[in-house]
Amino acid sequence: MKTFLCQVCGHVAFDGAPEKCPVCGAPREKFAQKDGLLKKAGDGTVGGETEDKHVPAITVVKTCGLIPQGCIDVHVKVGKVEHPSLPEHHITFIDFYLDKKFIARTHLTHEHCHPAAALHLKASSGTLQAVENCNIHGWWFAEKPL
User: Fold this and answer.
1) Model-level pTM?
2) Which CATH architecture has domain 38-145?
């Protein structure tokens, strides 16, 4: 997969570097092509317990309890087994994309947050991608159709 990494904030762009980073505003020159950066379930790079604690698990809920019309809830939990939230090993953020276009970032602090996040989407179709960053094990990727 063709990916570009913002050297300032860690944002991942697909297929090409943007003019400006949608997370931190850094210019295109701050992006480096990093194909193979994203690890995902079953890709053979890492397996076992490490993979079980890092691959984002995406749940799509078609009926939203907060916004009754035109809303789909998306929940992302990092790992089948909950990832640690310790000073020395934690998830720094979860980025959300719709059809590989960035839509949101959730920053996580290890002191106060579980490694999970949720969004209320206006979209009714497409494929949601989630990218999470572990301060030790790097970037992990999953996707699911809405």
Assistant:
1) 0.93
2) Sandwich (2.60)
